[in-house]
Fold each of these.
Amino acid sequence: MGTRDKDGVNLVIQKIKKQWIKFSFLALITLTLLAWISLIPSLDFLFQKEYWLNFKIFSNNLLGFNKSSIAFLSKKKWLIALEETLETLKMSLLAITIATFIALPFALLTARNYAFGSLTLHTSKPKRLLYYVTRFIVLVFRSVPEVMWAMIFIYLFKPGILPGALALGIHNAGVLSKLISELIEEINPKPIQQLVTQGASLMTLQFYGFIPLLMAKTLTYILYRLDNIVRSSLIVGLVGAGGLGMQFRLAMSFFKYTHITLYLMCYLLLVFLIDGISNQLKRLIRFI
């Protein structure tokens, strides 16, 4: 095949790719519009007077109107709620620790350039086999939602922050592994290859190669996942994994509306606290 024929084939392939991108984009917009249109008939309750009356009653109950005992105005209730907030914080910190310790080695093993030798100038059958095995494990970790992991661990252990921490840690280990492995696949291989040619061990590569190149972005990803873990902690708590989520579910079950408001206030305080600390740490990371 001549050069002109190859150019013609490449041109046809490029046109097909462009047409496929346009078709995919239009199909996505069409499906989105159809989804919204199909939702319209189910929104007829918004035009019913009874719905807004029930909404008003529910809102008044949350705010404690016409209630003799209001949980979010009680110092004793606040102390109890803050203890549960501390439990949620413990669960989140345990989870990010578990996720980080699992993700760091798995990220290296699931990086294609490391497994197939383009990064370290060395590969082997066990390393390639380990690549596929760990990649499958990471896929399972992040594909199963935190709630399902929480239900599994609650069955294996008992309700509390440990199943919640394990559930959040395992799921986020899968997410972190993928994010960090993509960072490894994008790094400049020359510094790593120079260390390899000088006979550096895997431990030396970690401390003098990967860590200096990846530390700033890796820490940013870890803080980002911590933000997500704090937000997800309420959801896993709803299935019995302890913390504010579990108390929130109990309050809903027993119609303790002002307790619901109190737990939501504590949850928002925790989210704002973690978000503020995370933002400050991200600013410091920029100087690394």
Note: The chain has a mean pLDDT of 88.
Amino acid sequence: MEHRTLGQTGIRVSRLAFGTLTFKIREIPVEQGADLLVSAAEMGITFFDLGEIYETYPHMRLALQQIDDRPVIAAKSMAKDAESMRMSVKRALDEIGVAYVDIFKLHNVDSIEDLMSRRSAWEALLEARADGLVRAIGVSTHSCEVLREIIGWHDVDVILTVYNQGRQGVLQGTMSDMLSCIKAAHRAGKGVYLMKALAGGLLYANPRQALEFAFSVEEADSVAVGMHTLQEVIYNIAVAVGEEVPASVERNLKETERRWHVRPFCKGCGSCITACRYGALTMRDNKPVVDPSKCILCGYCGFACPVMAIKIL
């Protein structure tokens, strides 16, 4: 597995990072999730992306008890103010069972207004870094405007942003704009890693092509991919290192049951209803509801969603 230094942080990370949001969506038990994290570490993944709202700190804590060499751990919080962020950092340290977290980020900053409203939370992260509770700090965002802004912030170490072949999830710009921002951030010395390479599962029809598209961005130090089965870990590592995927793994993944999910931040706009060709979606309490007997998991509803709230995992 190739490793790169994350910007100017001095932190070395595997080119493939393990994203843990899927643990929450698929309700993966702590013991099962920890076993998968351990297996991933044994196979060469040294970078694990966690989040307060993912509720995966306990999984990582148990995994660390079985991993010989401590991996790089990234956490993030939706905190809006300084005190909430201090509590978030403390919660991460306590629940993961570590003295420090390698990277801590403002989570899901979706506009300049949102960024500025969370300035005191950012100040709390600066304090945490100065106190040695975190090694590097940063921002996760889908927004080109936010990315352009924080490139100029000298105290931003790391940026997590969206980039995928399906052109899904970019706010205030196009995927081409996002690539330009990623390159500019890299030139500015920021550590950059990517998320949503599979567009929340919408690109499962050809996952290798989608992953290779993300890995082709040389300015990205790592690509975080959500995984919840051992077969996915094996597949993604094979692609990351440029090897052929074992036929048995390919077959297993094709047979894996995928499920339609809608995330809580759905805006209830109804774009997915219009996009569905099979009449599988209806609106209930301002949220789409799927009829499994009609849904073929084609993903067109997800491609139509302006906030990337629909996932197939």
Note: The mean pLDDT is 93.
Amino acid sequence: MPLEDVAVGQILVKQSYLSEEELQNALLEAKENKQSLINVLSGQGLITPSLIQGALAEHYKLEFYDLQTNPPSTEELASLPEAIARKYFVIVVEKKENSVKIATTDPQQENLEEVIRVNLGKEEAVFPEEESTEKKKEKKGEEEEKKSEEPKKEKGKEEKPKSKEKEVKEKKKAGGGFFGLGRKKAEAEGFKGKITYVFASKEGIEAMFLRYRKPLATRFQQIVDAEKEVAPEILVEIINDAIQLRASDIHFEPQGDKFTIVRFRVDGVMHEAGRIPKIYYEGVVNLIKIEANMRIDEHFAPQDGAGDELL
């Protein structure tokens, strides 16, 4: 999960991007105006969002990954279930046979690696089973009872409380963890390769979540799959589907020599509406050019066109 504003502010102060006074003033303004700390600091001109992301990446000693200029492929994104990606703010940006690169806002989340290893390549998210309230109370009672039975320590010889770091190490050594697995068992039951982390902004990862949206159910895709119609009918159905779904834009995105992805913009968000094989796509494009009074023999220079259609 992304860091809270206070934690982000403390990192910026530690790295001398802000003074303690500037941080406290910015936190107060963020609370009063219900804004994020990053927006307030940017508005005050104290620090830019890019510098903040760089500072956070430096804090974690990770490379900063710009998702806007280097977005992952659909296949890479789908390597982790959407529920896991949203809960832990992690996405796959590169996947090879024996290695995977993960973009995250916080690589120090408890048992993150076990979660990724167990879920990588799965369609449905695998979450740890949380203890019920009754079981937690029962466990707490047993611990208190055990503690009361222990002989009292001599004065001056009380044991020092364990540090959080030591507790985590002991937990891992005992094979604990979010799944009760630990790293070795997680590797045995899931992904066994190397995991590399890179830092990405919260906004960048949130933008990638939109690409998890399932393709729209469209009639033209059913026609293409059934191979029953040709270019004129496909184009008519694409337009009809767009009207029924209240789309404001239709985008055609050629994917090499294989197929073309058709996307509709609905309520400001792009959705995949279907895929057209190359054998149909050229005919569809030529029909659009004819209707819009454009040259069909021009394939490289941009053209503007317009046309009316009675529907």
Note: Residues 133-149 form the longest helix (17 residues).
